[in-house]
């Protein structure tokens, strides 16, 4: 239980400490990440021993917040911790000279905290919170160099894209909680029927946003504006992985129809973004497109009904892609640019980094005996074994060919060219981070049987899938090495350069209608307002009139009556003058008059 | 109408006229009250005459006269009480001087 807390709070506390102290940030960051890593590994060890600690905290009424360490959670947490720590080691070198180091390390640690919370969350409320925190911290990290041109736009774009897709998650969570009455993830997974289908599709939308699936893939390429360690962390174990993790964790919920849609989205993404990577002219953007493509493959595996294959690819990809990014960061430091044209021959300048980069690239392409091979084979086997083998199998194999092609293209460009040797400050730190991740990328396959044992599931890979995968990877590598990428694309090249943006892009398809809607709403509101104001004026007029009537006429009548009565009284006072004779005379006269009148009446009638 | 009744009514009318004249012409409270007594006496003469000559069997007329005479006596008592009080306070019962009683 305390381990669960330590996993999450150690990085968070150190992040706060860094922000307070503002010095020795690198060492502190390593300490925080190391503590989290140790706790995470201890949890994994416990999971292997069959101990699954749970922490229940008071949350919403009737919906306590749960942190729990299932085998899957512990595994993912260990992955996040390991990749995060190694990236931080690298960042010590990479951010060596940056004056804003404390902010960087604090946000990185916060990012790791958020991701660990997401991975360990046992109920939807906590998961939503973590999901939002990931979005926030990635926004802060992508926009880290906010003074540079275009960075703020990229950060906002990434944030808004993922934020929009988050609505899917919110709605799905509301539906699940409303249907089952419980916020515990495990108990909501038994939902079935229409609710499960709708919730599954909404979860897919959320995952599409976070994992940059077509058509929401554009932001990931632009997110390269952040520092390279950020990209490495973002693309491997945290932000982008959140989408796939969400689908892997909710896989038991998803009905067959939702699975098919997920598989199709993943398949289309893996091909489309693979083509984009082939035509890309910037190394980091190429890697970003490749990330989308690999997550597409994971969705294919989920769609084929084998989330374990997706999990393998997720873990392998986390190690591989972070090492690729770290390698790209080394080349970036040596040439001061990430454009492929500027990076020609950069691999010869730093051969050791290039060796690591190549190993990771081959692993991503799926060359045995590295982790990528086994993971990718699991995915291909899943696709070939699914009910929709024609679609999913072909798309998965095409994605694999494309992976080989763009990785070979990148290697080709990095190797061929002139040398400009240059010493890079902080290379020791960067090298060690990179080496650790490359070793992980290469050797992770050894851990796969253990993972299978841990999760209590087994994958049949089959020779057919292995052969098909290997053939696809090799043909892709050959194509990419011997032919220029844009030429391979042929007529698709200009499209790929534009990220396969839908014609007219966001402006035409989303922005203009939204603006029109907003204007219509504005007009409607004006009309409503004028109506309300007219009514208001009318009512005020009526009120005014009523007041005038009240003041002038009613009050006037009453006061006139009062004045009349008073003056009449004044008049009558004069009669009462105390002259008793006059009064007697008046009395006598009056009596005489009345008598005369009565007599007259008596006589006449 | 019998001549007796006519004579009685004329007597009553004369008393009334004298009484009204006296009440209006005199300024002394005592004299005014005497005028008022004469007015009432005229009325009583009429009542008695109507009873005696028109409805001699109806004793209600007699009773009515007796009650009016009692009320007259009471009125006199009150009136003279006021006059005495006035005389003690001001030394006079002239009504022209009593204007100060006006509110």
Helices and strands in order:
The complex is a heterodimer of chains A (605) and B (103).
Chain A lengths: L1 H20 L3 H24 L5 E7 L2 E6 L2 H24 L6 H20 L3 H19 L8 H30 L4 H4 L5 H17 L7 H5 L5 H9 L2 H11 L6 H24 L3 H21 L3 H29 L10 H4 L1 H15 L5 H15 L3 H27 L11 H17 L4 H8 L7 H20 L2 H5 L3 H5 L7 H71 L4 H25 L1
Antiparallel strand pairs in A: 1-2
Helix pairs in contact in A: 1-2, 1-4, 2-3, 2-4, 3-4, 3-10, 3-14, 3-19, 4-5, 5-6, 6-8, 8-11, 8-12, 10-14, 11-13, 11-14, 12-13, 12-18, 13-14, 13-17, 13-18, 14-16, 14-17, 14-19, 16-18, 16-19, 17-18, 17-21, 18-21
Chain B lengths: L2 H23 L3 H25 L6 H31 L13
Task: Tell me about this structure.
The complex is a heterodimer of chains A (605) and B (103). Chain A is mainly alpha-helical and 605 residues long. Among the domains of chain A are: 245 residues, no CATH class; 81 residues. Chain A is 78% helix and 2% strand. Chain A has 25 helices and two strands. Chain A has a two-stranded antiparallel sheet with strand order 1-2. The longest helix of chain A has 71 residues. Chain A is elongated. Chain B is mainly α and 103 residues long. The model of chain B has no long low-confidence stretch (mean pLDDT 88). Chains A and B meet through helix 25 of A and helix 1 of B.
Summarize the structure.
The complex is a heterodimer of chains A (605) and B (103). With 605 residues, chain A is mainly α.
Please name the defining characteristics of this protein.
heterodimer, A: 605 residues, mainly alpha, two-stranded antiparallel ribbon, 25 helices, 2 strands, B: 103 residues, Helix Hairpins, 3 helices, elongated
Main sheet of chain A, how many strands, which sense, barrel?
Answer: 2 strands, antiparallel
The structure class of chain A reads mainly alpha
What structural class do you assign from the helix and strand content of chain B? mainly alpha
Terminal Cα span of chain A = 119 Å
User: In oligomeric terms, what are we looking at?
Assistant: heterodimer
The count of helical stretches of chain A stands at 25
CATH topology assignment of chain B: Helix Hairpins
Specify Rg of chain A, calculated over alpha carbons: 39 Å
Major β-sheet of chain B, in short?
none
**End-to-end Cα distance of chain B:** 50 Å
Task: Give the SSE string of chain B.
Answer: HHH
**Which ranges of chain A are low-confidence, i.e. pLDDT below 50, for 5 or more consecutive residues?**
none
Helix share bin of chain A: over 70%
The total number of structural domains of chain B is: 1
